[in-house]
Design a protein that fits this description.
The protein is an alpha+beta fold. Helix content is 70%, strand content 8%. It folds into 2 domains: 4-33 and 114-295, Multidrug efflux transporter AcrB transmembrane domain (Multidrug efflux transporter AcrB transmembrane fold); 39-110, ACT domain (Alpha-Beta Plaits, 2-Layer Sandwich).
Amino acid sequence: MNIIGYRKLYYSISGTVIVVSLVALLLWGLRPGIDFTGGSLLQMRANNIDTAVITKVFSENGVEHVLIEQGTGNGYTLRFQEISEDKHQQLFSQLRSIYPDLAEEQFSVIGPTISGELREKALFAIVFVLFGISLYIALVFRQVSRPLASWVYGIVTLFTLFHDVIVPAGVFAVLGHFSGVEIDSNFVVAMLVVMGFSVHDTIVVFDRVRENLKRITGKVSFEELVNKSMLETFARSVNTSLTVVLVLLALLFFGEPNLKYFITTLLIGILTGTYSSIFIASPILVDVALLKAKRG
């Protein structure tokens, strides 16, 4: 099976998805949650709640843009702007008069200072991961010199990471614009997990390429060698990803509703990462090698 031979098709698919994701991000951006902007979170339980009634009560008290998420059973999570304790008690009292069985489980306020620290830590975590991955690949592939230098493997890996991160980010830009879905610290955690999974999958293929470069010394082109390496690792990559995807699907449909967007991020990212490690990363290696050979 000649996977490499159809690489232009894979590039077209990825290019289209990346462009659409970038357009969505540029037009609408990501909708930050209270973790990053500051605000209030109220978790409560009650039977037969009408979300329109809750929104009206908050609006009458000067609190707009209330995001209401239904949790397990009769549980609800409300996210809204930062309010004082007096305003919190006033709102809860009015809701209690409408729903006598209303029970508050948690009320918390995240101030702008804390949210700013979270943004900085999230950015630091992503930069640290990218730096660590680049250093790791440079060390692991330092003995690879033909037909590409070790740093090329690192650059290609970073590109596939961009590919795997930009797609779920684009999806959440669309969800934020049309459905009001916000990103929080769980989104950042999910993206870091996706990056780790993507690198793992890519390294498996690249490592087999490295082994075959040492082992195969006959008249085999680099394109044929890469294709052979991909076929040797194809089943492992797909089976590993399929196992994770099945678990995530089970959690998405039967797990805690409050984690559905965290799981959705993982699901999109892992599917994208599996695709890129097989159909994007290795074909790029071949094209870079061909370009280098043409330039002499």
